TrEMBL record, chains A, B:
PANTHER family: HOMOSERINE DEHYDROGENASE
Gene3D superfamilies with a match to the protein in the record: 3.30.70.260, Dihydrodipicolinate Reductase, domain 2 (3.30.360.10), NAD(P)-binding Rossmann-like Domain (3.40.50.720)
Annotated binding of L-homoserine, by residue: 192
Required co-factors: a metal cation
Active site as annotated: 207
Molecular function GO labels: homoserine dehydrogenase activity; NADP binding
Protein name: Homoserine dehydrogenase
């Protein structure tokens, strides 16, 4: 029997591209038995041929011509690991139009243009798979689209940014301040030179948009996600959270409520007993609640050369199986609803609030009264300690409409007895 | 466009069967958009028509004739939720031979005859799916077969029995003894009237056999699994484990070592920092280590009406997609290797050992010397406390060949100064 070989091209040979190359090599001997054919990387698109040649033992695979790959009819699968929107979007579109199947790890692209690319893939009976775009090596897209397809999923909550989880873990376990923990993350290679997308929650926002789209069968784009980063979190907040039995995590939260989808990325107090609370260091996890499965969680490495490559190669193997069985395009876009996205001020949250106020009688009562006027009810109010010229108080609210809470904050901020609103952090979960 | 309907039969209408019926009803409105066709349950096989009629609003679907279902050519999918080996095995085989696709939650059957049934399915180009047979609602079979297919998986470790995990959690958190915790589990419906299969580790053994087969691409049956239950664990063991920074969990452990597969179910000390250590109550979790993905964990409900139905309906939907795309049988048996199974005595473990000995000089040295003779090296040795006529000591060993350890135990048991070997429990993990 002649050996069946499926040819693929790799776009990009950075960390993830190198990982894909390695993982495919590691699987070389078993592929045919495992999936019915071998996958051979025929071409690798790079910008700098010379630099790339040092990375792999087969420099003859390298090219800097996208046209060469696009026009090569023997190449059936394109693996895009360049990142960025342009030219990745154009290349992927051209590949799909040429009948090539595409695997990508590009969360920026999928979070903003996933619908368009899936439609293009469907039109050409191609597969467009992107398991690696969310939570690195952790299987989450396929479980949501297939294993949990019998559910109405009401909530997807993820720790999907390893950099910020590493920083918050250091702040929690070693009482570091944000700036020091960020510096450490940078030194260890967990944070990029420009960490903005991570620490401002944009990266997590892209991932939660992708997951929400699939979980709720309704398109959610990055532009729909309200994002807040972790730069304002202090080790003092984390200490107070601990007193309340909580840790602080940067969560991507997507909820399908009766009247629309809520989707946001925010640092939140998470009760210590919740499975997400013990996800530490650079690990990621995605927690899902469905009407049939109840609670489920998926945990693992959210980034890195080989974990990300694991997800990509899983997608590639799936496409090979589809090619062999003539069923490519078998699972395409599942966004058959068009649910509204709720405005942030219309959503409800619980808040942890830390204030510096005059240390004199009546101040607490005054604050409580303002909160009451805006229908913010107080679950806990604690006078934490006294400094020379002020007292620090911590308030935890019950669930309140975000708009009301912010209106109340404006009034409280203007009160003479209030020196400063030090922290406003949301609290995850329903219970008081 | 005419509505495409795929007809299915349900074998059994117990807890899980009722769950499947409900979940399919819950998905009725969306199915066609989600997967391209509706699934209609056309017949339900039950033993007692009258009793079953009270359970569903469509008693006309009920039948007690398997032949009626088998001979109904319009039925394309058979969902087996009767449990037990016979007649489930015969029914499934006949269904596959008749070209019907089969979904089952039957771990007993899959753990002993999975290979045979998968071969039969492949021969008839049918799907035979069994996601629900391991860890209830938690997606694990499909992630292993597809998402993680780019890995050489070296280890699968699961808390895959909710009953024993509930019992151990109560023993840990509320300091109950085994018998009381079992009684509570029975009262709350977590334990069956005859809890043998759970508390002796057989149930977990079946699940770990199924997972090992898929993870290592080599058939492992229940008969290959060394099982040990939790009936001998005392709250004192749990307290001592805590002093060592560990909890005790019933683990199904499968390892693919260089010289064969190790597969066993045993109560083990698990370091508190390990993700499995915080899996409590009746929750299940499966921890996987692969050469590309590194560590990953899957967590959720391992049993119950709706969680199990979630997994079954996920499989049913996948088959519907395969039928519509003409690619049934797309992923069949993946056991293309024939790795040897290691004998238990040839495997290596670390041990926690609790002994009652004479409270006099030289006893510790005597025990240490016997252990040394059998190449059992001691990682920790602690004199725990003194009673009137004996002292209690706890020993934690380094990694040792099981055979050597048991030989050493025989000698130690016969020592005059040794009153009793109270506990022998394995310790999970490589580190000392």
């Amino acid at each position: 029997m002649s050996k069946k070989v499926i040819k693929a091209a790799l776009l990009g040979l950075g960390t993830v591209g190198t990982g894909v190359y390695k993982v495919l090599k590691n699987q070389e001997e078993e592929m045919e038995q495992k999936i019915g054919a071998s996958v051979a990387v025929k071409k690798i698109l790079v910008r700098n041929l010379k630099k790339a040649a040092a990375k792999i033992p087969e420099p003859e695979l390298l090219t800097n011509s996208w046209q060469e790959i696009l026009e090569d009819e023997s190449i059936e699968i394109v693996i895009e690991v360049m990142g960025g929107i342009h030219p990745a979007k154009e290349y992927i579109t051209q590949a799909l139009c040429a009948g090539k199947h595409v695997v990508t790890a590009n969360k920026d692209l999928v979070a903003s243009f996933g619908g368009e690319l899936l439609d293009c893939a469907a039109e050409h009976h191609c597969d467009f798979l992107f398991e690696a775009s969310v939570a690195g090596g952790i299987p989450i897209i396929r479980p949501l689209k297939q294993c949990l397809a019998g559910n109405h999923i009401s909530e997807v909550v993820g720790i999907v940014n390893g950099t910020t989880n590493f920083i918050l873990t250091k702040m929690t376990q070693e009482h570091m301040e944000f700036a020091d923990a960020l510096a450490l993350a940078t030194r260890l290679g967990y944070a990029e030179a420009d960490p903005t997308a991570d620490i401002q929650g944009y990266d997590a926002g892209r991932k939660v948009a992708i997951m929400a789209s699939i979980a709720f069968n309704s398109r959610v784009t990055f532009e729909d996600v309200a994002t807040e980063g972790i730069t304002h979190i202090s080790s003092k907040d984390i200490r107070y959270a601990k007193e309340l039995g909580c840790v602080i995590k940067l969560l991507g939260v997507a909820k399908n409520t009766g009247d629309g989808i809520e989707v946001k990325v925010q640092p939140m107090l998470v009760p210590e007993g919740h499975p997400l609370a013990s996800v530490n260091d650079s690990f990621n996890a995605v927690f899902v609640h469905g009407d049939a499965v109840d609670d489920a969680m998926f945990y693992g490495r959210g980034a890195g050369e080989l974990p990300t490559a694991s997800a990509i190669v899983g997608d590639v193997f799936d496409i090979v199986r589809n090619i062999l069985f003539g069923c490519t395009g078998r699972i395409s876009c599942t966004c058959y609803k068009a649910l509204p996205i709720k405005k942030q001020e219309e959503t409800e949250s619980r808040f942890f609030l830390r204030l510096h106020v005059d240390d004199k009688p009546g101040v607490l009562a005054g604050i409580a009264s303002v909160l009451g006027n805006y229908r913010v009810s107080i679950a806990q109010m604690i006078q934490k300690h006294r400094e020379e010229d002020f007292a620090e108080i911590v308030v935890v609210t019950s669930k309140v409409r975000e708009g009301n809470f912010h209106d109340a904050m404006l009034i409280i901020e203007g009160m003479e007895a209030v020196h400063k609103i030090t922290s406003v952090i949301r609290v995850y979960g329903e219970q008081e």
